[in-house]
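A sample follows:
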Amino acid sequence: KRVGPILAMAAILLTAGPGFAQGVSISFTGRVRTICQVALLDQPALLLRAGENRLGRTEELCNSIDGYRIILNHPVGLVGAYVLVDGQRVAIASGATQTVIVDSPHPGDSRRELLLHLDQPAEAPMPLTLAAEAKGMLF
């Protein structure tokens, strides 16, 4: 809302001549709200079989300068289960309900393929959700 006076001042400095503008610098700073989100582009099957199950492709966006995490929320008791994130194996602890599947040290805009390996087929629909969590300060 105050851009008009700032731009007018910059124009005056630039047209005032080389001697006047020498040694003068202009800088702009701002703060952008932290955005950190993940979406699953494909809907996975609710009843999962033993072996590999394609969960789909993620779409991640996070502008946190300190990076972000993508967390898979899953039921407890998945013995021998793991997630393949773009081919990289991430173990799921059988006593946990959350697994960090991505831990990025910088901002990102990514897409990743997810596969879930189960040793035993699911007996009931398995609720699986993803969450994005910004690291560092939030604005």
